[in-house]
Each structure stands twice: as C-alpha cells, then as structure tokens.
Automatic annotation (TrEMBL):
Its EC number is 2.1.1.336. Belongs to the class I-like SAM-binding methyltransferase superfamily. Cation-dependent O-methyltransferase family. PANTHER family: O-METHYLTRANSFERASE-RELATED, TAPETUM-SPECIFIC METHYLTRANSFERASE 1. It comes from Platanthera guangdongensis. PROSITE patterns: SAM_OMT_I (PS51682). It catalyses: norbelladine + S-adenosyl-L-methionine = 4'-O-methylnorbelladine + S-adenosyl-L-homocysteine + H(+). It holds the Pfam family Methyltransf_3. Pathway: Alkaloid biosynthesis. This is norbelladine O-methyltransferase.
Length: 278
C-alpha cells in the first residue's frame, strides 16, 4: 500500500508537469500550489506536491521538454500550432491532446494508410485536425461531440485554413446512441479503419463494444487518458469517481480481450492502441 501511494505521487507529478508544459510553455519551474491543487482535483488524487522530491519529477519534465523541442514542434503543422496557441487560453485547455501524442496519432494513421476514421470527443479539435492532416485527400472523419461550440468558435477556422475541412463530418450528439445507430446502419464494406476515443471515460467499455463492430479487422482503436493522471493506481476497492472507474475497467478488459492486440503507451495521459484481430 505504501509503495503504491508513492508511485501514485510520482505519476501525479509527471501529470502536473505535462499540464504545465501544455498550458504554460516552458515555465516548468513556476509550478505553483494553486495550479497543483487544480490538477490534483482533476486527477482525483490527494497528496501534498511539496512533500515529494523534485528529483523524482524534474528529469521526466526535462525529457518531455526535450522530445517536444527536438522532434515534435519542428514537425507540427502551422495551423495545429496556431490552434494549440489559441486553445491554451481556454479554461479547459488541459483537455486537448498534447502535441507529442498528436505526433503518435499522425504516424499511426499514415502507417496504416487510414482513409476512414471516427473520433469520439473533439473539444477545440487538436486531435481532429491532426487526423485530418494525416489522412489522404479523399479521407473522411466522422467526429462526434456532445457540444460543437468549442470546435465552431475555435477549431473550425484552422481546419479551413489548413484546407482539410471537407474531410470532416461533425456529429453533435451524445456518443453512445450515435454509435448504436451506426452499428445498425453500417454495412461490412463501410467499416472504419481507425477510431480515436477521448470523451466520457465512464463509457469507455461501452464504446469499446460498439467500436469493435464498427472498425474493420486489422483496424485500430486508440483510447486516450488510459493512465488518467495516475489515478489508475488507486488501491483496489478504494472509492473512485465514475470516470476513474471507467478507465480502470477498460484497462482490465483490454488486457484480456481476445478480439484485439494492444499496447498501452506512457505518453501524454496514457494511450492504449488496439488492433482488431477478430
Ligand atoms: C477531452 S475532450 C476531447 C479533446 C480532443 N480530443 C482534443 O484533442 O482537443 C472531451 C470532449 O468530449 C465531449 N464529450 C463529453 N461527454 C460526451 C459524450 N457523452 N458524448 C459525446 N461527447 C462527449 C466533450 O464535450 C469534450 O469536448
């Protein structure tokens, strides 16, 4: 128990630093108590950041900074950078996919020559624009979000400027009933190549069942936030919120699901990449 608490703390520090990088550029050293508490409450953790050793987390922050500076920012499309800059001022900026994870998403899409994708959870559209830029000219994305306003007011103009807006079909809807509708309507030769899931963590296991019917064999499902700020390390049988519970259930389910091959990657807030094999 003592050991898992210690791990929980170091994961949370990593999370705090990542958010700090996304939201505040390079000012890692200016981590302040108020900001820490916000992140801690997002993660559902309780601990005192000041009680933890700087040594534990500074090298991780330095490495993330190194990756961003060396290989991520030089390759980030100018409209993605502009979108990221504008999103930084949004009160929910931390919801955006971080740019190093965006690189991984883009690479995967190109690696598998994806043409037809589905995204659950758009917000201002960093992952959506990343996808639209990675798909070929005739690529199509079905993007679902319960609230279109952040995309309309912030994200859409960057997709227009990048010349990829025509690849996007935005569905403003609760995700689950829309996925259910697709399951009934989609024909075998209309299945998706790729899905990116980043909304309503409590429903991740429900999305998984639908998406396994909507993605072709050999297609990929990528789940975001599968480390959920380190809160997946909560002791067994401890009381967690419904989103943490949703992520923990998904992680357990994916680990033994014979219909997929998978790998959980420690990037951003944790990403799990699944290939449908059956
Ligand atoms: C973490 S954000 C998505 C971030 C996005 N991938 C990006 O890179 O900016 C989650 C989004 O999911 C949407 N959402 C939350 N619950 C939902 C639900 N039940 N169905 C559809 N969308 C939902 C929210 O409106 C929010 O925009």
């Amino acid at each position: 128990m003592a050991q898992s608490k210690c791990l929980l703390q170091s994961q949370a520090l990593l999370q705090i630093e990542v958010y700090e990088i996304w939201n505040c550029g390079w000012e890692i050293g200016r981590l302040n108590g108020r900001f820490s508490e916000e992140i801690v409450s997002i993660s559902g953790l309780s601990y005192n950041p000041r009680a933890s050793s700087r040594r534990l987390w500074l090298p991780l922050g330095d490495l993330i900074k190194y990756i961003l500076q060396t290989s991520v920012y030089p390759r980030e499309h100018e409209q993605l950078k502009a979108l990221r800059e504008e999103t930084r001022h949004h009160r929910w900026a931390g919801m955006s996919v971080p740019p190093d994870e965006g690189r991984l998403l883009s690479l995967l899409l190109k690696l598998m020559n994806a043409k037809k994708t589905i995204e659950v959870g758009v917000f201002t559209g960093y992952s959506l624009l990343t996808t639209a830029l990675a798909l070929p000219k005739d690529g199509k994305i079905t993007a679902i979000d319960i609230n279109k306003s952040n995309y309309e007011t912030i994200g859409r103009k960057y997709a227009q400027r990048a010349g990829v807006e025509d690849k996007i079909e935005f569905i403003e809807s609760e995700a689950l009933p829309f996925l259910d509708k697709l399951v009934l309507e989609l024909k075998e030769d209309e299945l998706f190549d790729f899905a990116f899931v980043d909304a309503d963590k409590a429903n991740y296991t429900n999305y998984h069942e639908r998406l396994l019917k909507l993605i072709r064999v050999g297609g990929v499902i990528m789940y975001d936030n599968t480390l959920w700020g380190g809160s997946v390390l909560a002791p067994v049988n401890s009381k967690v919120d419904r989103e943490t519970d949703g992520i923990i259930r998904l992680n357990k389910q994916l680990a033994v699901d014979p219909r997929i091959e998978m790998s959980q990657v420690c990037i951003g807030d944790g990403v799990t990449i699944c290939i449908r094999i059956a």
